[in-house]
Amino acid sequence: MNQIHVIAHTHWDQEWYFTRQDSMVLASYNFADVINTLEQDSAYTCYHLDGQMAVVEDFLAINPDYRARLEKLVREKRIFVGPWYTQTDTYNVHGESIIRNLKYGIFSARTLGHAMQVGYLPDTFGHNAQMPTLLQGCNIDNIVFWRGIDHDRHAKSSQFLWRAPSGATVIACAMALGYGAAKN
To answer: Which position among 123, 141, 150, 152 bears the catalytic label?
Structure first.
């Protein structure tokens, strides 16, 4: 029998549907609930917090009393944070900006105890052909993404080796049905 892994997670668009202030209030309630749930219910083993640190820093700025609890869960690898600072559009941005975003995100995540080693980009509308090179430069050997590929025409499988023009490769997983597929 095949195994299915369901990973509790959020994708947090800081200023997409709401104002920044509304988003911060909602994040405060949601992230506090995640921390409380992980501490109180052993059935929830881990949580993936969107791959970007800016929302985590915003949460801690208005909820500093949660820092020690969050650090403990991150160190225990029960909450996964980083490696990005913000989820960037990797198609239209200069490579140096992508590298700095990634390096700062890793640094910020490590201050909490651990940086996730997955190049997680669930909602980026295109990708730089050199992403494998950029990720490998930060010791990340894989990427999980959604947008930016025509699954019907270009992907024989949702898992493949992505080879950059430089020759660098990473293991790629294209989420054929997006980051919210399980809700359907």
So the answer is: 123
C-alpha Rg value of the chain to the nearest Å: 17
d(CA 172, CA 164): 12
Examine the residue annotation and report whether 65 is marked as an active-site residue of this protein.
no
Q: Is the dihedral of CA 101, 120, 29, 184 positive or negative?
A: positive
Concatenated DSSP letters of 13-66 = -TTSSS-HHHHHHHHHHHHHHHHHHHHH-TT---EE-TTBSHHHHHHHHH-GGG
The answer to whether the pTM exceeds 0.85 is yes
For domain 20-183, give its CATH number from 3.40.50.720, 3.60.70.12, 3.100.10.10, 3.20.110.10: 3.20.110.10
pLDDT tens-place string over residues 79-114: 999 999 998 888 888 889 999 999 999 999 999 999
Instruction: Map tokens 């909490």 to a residue.
Output: 112
Give the contacts of 106 (CB within 8 A, at least 6 positions apart).
Answer: 82, 83, 115, 138
Query: In angstroms, how far is CA 4 from the centroid of its own chain?
Result: 20
* Cα distances (Å, whole numbers) of residue 122 to 21, 68, 80, 81, 164: 23, 28, 15, 14, 19
